[in-house]
Records
---
Amino acid sequence: MSATPRPTVFVTRGIPLRAAELLREHVDLRVWGQERNMMPDEIRQAVPGIHGLLVHPPTRVDKAILDAAGPQLKVVGTMSVGLDHIDLRECASRKIAVGYTPDVLTDATAELTVALTLSTCRRFKEAFDAVVNGGWGTWDNAQYLCGKEVKSSVIGIVGMGRIGFATAQRLKAFKPSRILYSGKHPKVYATELDAEYVTFEDLLRESDFVIVCLSVNSGNIGLFNADTFKKMKKSAIFINTSRGVVVNQNDLYEALKLGQIYAAGLDVTTPEPLPLDSPLLTLPNVIITPHIGSATERARSAMAELTVKNILAGLKGEPLPSPVHV
Ligand SMILES: O=C(O)C(=O)CO
């Protein structure tokens, strides 16, 4: 009697060992072995015949990839909370289940957002460079590397979802004067922080820190552009840990260079990795981290395990533990 063949799952990046072992117990695993994002043609070549696909942003899952995979593909599990790299409608129309990893990365991403906020307002990039390059100044100049404080500032959170809220909770400990937020609807849970629901325009005008924690949709691509930067205070600090596409990067560069805003801290860019000749890298008042919002051992292990559970459930035709509802 021949045994039922095991399903095949393709993984677009390495995953923590425990999650890989869990997957290997049940499926034939194929893993992209290189330390870089796959190019679309490389994925198309890798996926024919697979039953499950485990992806990491920014690797795109679109019609062409799904066509290349074939009709036996049952489940896509993304190791992310962001879904902008997946054509959800196309998956739904083919009855391919999609799972994602909200919640388990909220704390890690909020901590990174706070870290970026503090390191930008306290000019860490210039400070680190000064130590390494012999520019360590003294108190002779009382203004040497002076930055800004969160204390008594107005914090504006654009997108008070899980990560926005967790960020605001943490920043509240720094005693800002107000916390504002904008979005489609006021959030009941935001009252716990005395956060004020305001229009996007008011948030731009009044905030000392504009902190972007949005999930991307077709309505917010390029939302931060020359117009929006002009509406911010000259002293405003712009932080983005959402996705690079919500920012027009050329306009951000101009705004920073011309002093229309004070500084920026970005964990996400377009593209990723950011090319080494990006003009943003020439500015002293920009701190950029390489999309490490969820990069803690705890978060990444939890994300990988949840993704594996999503995939195993999808392969069996069972409800996913963390499904995306289209
Ligand atoms: O989960 C996501 O969407 C991420 O960007 C991970 O950092």
---
Amino acid sequence: PRLASARYGKDNVRVYKVHRDEKTGVQSVTEMTVCCLLEGAIDTSYTQADNSVVVATDSIKNTIYIKAKEHPVNPPELYAGILGQHFLDTYPHISVANVKVVVHRWTRMTIDGKPHPHSFYRDGEETRTVEAVIRRDGITIKSGIVGLTVLKSTGSAFHGFVRDEYTTLKETWDRILSTDVDCGWTWKKFDGLAAVQDGVERFDKAWEAARNITMKTFAEDESASVQATMYKMCGQILDAVPEADLANYSLPNKHYFEIDLSWHKGLKNTGEDAEVYAPQSGPNGLIKCEVARS
Ligand SMILES: O=c1[nH]c(=O)c2nn[nH]c2[nH]1
């Protein structure tokens, strides 16, 4: 047998960091879950039980906390680059660091019309994500939004699809559309950590743009299908993020089925009379695409 590939490290490292502004007394919080997996001249730890090449996953976990203390944790793209670069700079036999950062939402409470200095709430399980690969020849970063659940009660149609001996789905010009957004944008390769840090405001701007584009297009597009709407979203992200080469979406189509109640005293609840629906847990459609700049 031959070791075809190998990477190891610590997953599910939960990190919280608070920033305390001494002047204003306003505190800000960040909570994230980090995965850091290393690659390099580590084969003998698999093939020869040679632990001399192993930076223990416990040490990787410690390093995640230390770098979060020593450096900014925002934007997550910067923290991921700093963390990954540390391993290449510190261990000559480590050649690749794969860093995933998932940032959870703590939205500042507004109390009596005023932002509260140190209280927050979890307004949804939506996360901001970063997947960074740090190599000696550069850093590739894919940013994203995962778990933003949306629904529109109309403004979605699906008709004109293949009809044959396998088809039972009725055509519709007015349906509910709901999905859990999983979208991403892949940055052009950065030469190194300095290039990531230079113009670092690009990352927050891109995340805000992608989130706004997703909501606005989802809301306003007279959707002919999930496919057609997500393609528009990708194009708009590429327009808004000039340093991104690729945009992608993976969208489950979370179906809401009409319920025929006509058997009960002729109750009309289908088509234009439909009001009560059965949300489905599964099966669900799953529609994916990647759109390149050219
Ligand atoms: O938007 C949709 N795309 C599809 O491919 C599909 N198939 N069934 N329903 C669907 N809705």
